[in-house]
Design goal:
By secondary structure, this protein is an alpha/beta fold. 38% of the residues lie in helices and 23% in strands. It is elongated.
Length: 226
């Protein structure tokens, strides 16, 4: 344990920061989102092992976030709910949640649920993701095509992993920019274009034949079959 990533989506800033402090102290890497309208982008760019998701949020509620996230996110979703009666247990699992914790959140209960979900999670960083001839190791930030290492820079790796995890799904330029430059970025910044160009050169240099990075004009990028 110690490098797993947890995204906390909670509009009550006091509760969110208390949860963050507790999880940070346990060695997890955490990020906060206070508005539901920012949640899906954050899940894509941060690629967390677990999403802690409040149900009652401004912008987009937790139920809709969970439903839409399940189109591209295979990690664990732990719902934070005021009471089990807020939504039936069956309904929670139907819309894609893996577990829930009732408020007020008790630190020892939360930690136990998090650890249990990580044992089930397909995104555990101790494991590498293998698909399309690639091995992508999130812990070491190394990517291989069959037996050849692609020798990606850390920034190139982050962009490639984002595209890889969203295979055949559009990743917007904004999402790539936020990943490379952080939440504050300039729309005219060409840094992400440099990363994409570098990735294309390295895929070509290693004779990658299965996939390519496709540019969708004024929209973003996709990792797709050639």
């Amino acid at each position: 344990m110690g490098k797993e990533k947890i995204l906390i989506i909670e509009d009550d800033k006091v509760i969110a920061r208390l949860i963050k402090m507790y999880l940070d102290a346990e060695g997890y890497t955490t990020e906060l989102v206070f508005d539901g309208s920012m949640a899906l982008d954050a899940i894509k760019t941060f690629a967390p092992d677990i999403v802690l998701l409040d149900l009652m949020l401004p912008g987009m509620d937790g139920v809709e976030i969970c439903r839409q996230a399940r189109a591209f996110y295979n990690g664990m979703i732990l719902v934070l709910t005021a009471s089990v009666d807020e939504m039936s247990e069956v309904s929670l699992f139907k819309f894609g949640a893996d577990d829930y914790v009732t408020k007020p959140v008790k630190g020892n209960i939360l930690l136990a649920r998090v650890e249990a979900l990580l044992r089930r999670s397909p995104y555990q960083k101790k494991q590498s993701m293998c698909q399309l001839g690639f091995t992508v190791d999130s812990e070491s930030k190394r990517a291989f095509y069959h037996t050849q290492e692609l020798n990606l820079t850390p920034a190139e790796f982050d962009v490639f992993q984002l595209l890889y995890q969203n295979y055949e799904t559009l990743v917007t330029r904004e999402e790539c920019c936020k990943l490379v430059r952080g939440i504050e970025y300039c729309s005219s910044d060409r840094t992400v274009d440099m990363r994409i160009s570098g990735l294309r050169r390295k895929l070509l240099a290693h004779n990658v034949t299965e996939v390519m990075i496709k540019t969708l004009r004024n929209k973003g990028y996709m990792l797709v079959d050639k």
